[in-house]
Amino acid sequence: MSKENPLTEIYRDQWLLAVHKPAGLLVHRSPIDKHETEFALQYARALNGGEHVYPVHRLDRPTSGLLLFARDPQTASRLGKALMAGNVQKTYQAVVRGWTPEQGLIDHPLTDEPEYRRLKSEPQAERAARTRYRRLAITEIPVAIEGHPTSRYSLIELYPETGRKHQLRRHMKHISHPIIGDANHGRGRHNRYFAQRFGQGRLMLAATELVFPHPVTGETLHLQAAREDSFVQVLSIFSN
């Protein structure tokens, strides 16, 4: 583990620790990435004075943004139940291919993806998955990428109502507006264009807000994370 902690503390109290996780950092060990040695869980523990912390939700490795930890098992359990009950509102921002409708609901069940099916002894049935979205901005740039003389993109907010693996990425692919930089569910030509233009090929997905009742005090907590520089840099296309 490198000496500099890549996490930025956003909120802390007796029971909770919220941080900003950069794109490219795993939250914890994964059987899919067995060779990795650095994890947000380790760095959060360092911020917590070396004491254990308990992740209460996931962020995919290439996704940046707000990540919440509990500082004790009881708080972790309460937050887990709040998540299962739908009492935690999550907000993400993403840059996607094409012009999306101004708003919408994606109600599309999901099964485990192939690499995770191999880790399980029995096939996973379809599970309900719902994502609401709202369009924030659109742009059209004079670059021919897929045979058209121009290329269109949208900046959107996403509000997942369920928490399936890779839900946002898979749902945006499902409605033919894949997230820029998504190597598994996106469009390669668009991903390569952005990687070349901006000098980095990150997934353009960021967790920006969490709203939930505090698991101990009951007060409503509204946590926000600024988008990291590599995300903001790409948003320059919307000033055209």
UniProtKB/TrEMBL annotation:
InterPro entries: PsdUridine_synth_cat_dom_sf (IPR020103), PsdUridine_synth_RluA-like_CS (IPR006224), PsdUridine_synth_RsuA/RluA (IPR006145), RluA_PseudoU_synthase (IPR050188)
Residue span, Pseudouridine synthase RsuA/RluA-like domain: 16-174
Source domain of life: Bacteria
Enzyme nomenclature, EC number: 5.4.99.26
Keyword tRNA processing part of the UniProt annotation: yes
One Pfam family here: PseudoU_synth_2
Catalytic reaction equation(s): uridine(65) in tRNA = pseudouridine(65) in tRNA
Keywords: Isomerase, tRNA processing
Task of the protein: Responsible for synthesis of pseudouridine from uracil-65 in transfer RNAs.
UniProt-recorded name of the protein: tRNA pseudouridine synthase C
